[in-house]
Amino acid sequence: MRTVLIAALGLICALPALATDMPQKPVRLGLCAACHGETGMAQIPGAPNLAGQRLDYLRKALQDYRDGSRNVPLMRAAIGPVSDADLDQLARWYSAQTPQPQAAAQP
Predict the structure, then answer these.
(1) pLDDT tens for residues 31-66?
(2) Of 64, 65, 52, whose CA–CA distance to 92 is shortest?
(3) CATH number for the domain including 83?
(4) Is the dihedral of CA 4, 9, 14, 19 positive or negative?
(5) C-alpha distances in angstroms, 28 versus 44, 64, 69?
(6) Is the pLDDT confidence value at 27 over 60?
(7) Angle, nearest 10°, between helix axes 84-96 and 29-36?
(8) Is residue 88, in this structure, part of any structural domain at all?
(9) C-alpha distances in angstroms, 22 versus 39, 40, 89?
(10) Are 83 and 25 a contacting pair, CB within 8 Å?
(11) Considering 48, 62, 67, 89, which has the largest number of Cβ atoms within 10 A of its Cβ?
């Protein structure tokens, strides 16, 4: 019983440290989540999953969409005049998400 209590106490003490690893939910997440899902798993066909992508890749891709280097009008319109800080927050959020297996398509 003592071992179980010690293990439980250890887990309780570790929870705050684990919680700080997840970045704060971005304020601008709503529009992104409409297509890419709040946890980075696509909500519509053709939208890529962003969960677990590399932080530097996501950050650069978002900057390129915003600045027009990647010519995807839908993404440019969705991002609009987003600050570098907001882009960084979005990239950190999606890179910290864990990819989930997708359900098999129904025949």
Answers:
(1) 899 999 999 999 999 999 999 999 999 999 999 999
(2) 52
(3) 1.10.760.10
(4) positive
(5) 19, 17, 21
(6) yes
(7) 40
(8) yes
(9) 12, 14, 11
(10) no
(11) 62
Tokens 């979005």 locate to 90
DSSP-based three-state secondary structure for 79: helix
Residue 75: Cβ-neighbour burial (10 angstroms; 0-12, 13-18, 19+):
middle
Q: Which tokens sit at 94?
A: 């999606």
Q: Which residues contact 83 (CB under 8 A, 6 or more apart)?
A: none
Q: Which residue has the tokens 């009008």?
A: 73
Structure tokens at 5: 């209590």
According to the model, what pLDDT value does residue 4 have? 47
Show Cβ contacts of residue 63 under 8 Å, excluding neighbours closer than 6 positions. 69, 84, 87
Report if residue 103 sits inside a domain: no
* Residue 6 falls inside a structural domain: no
- Per the structure, the complete domain to which residue 37 belongs is given by 24-96
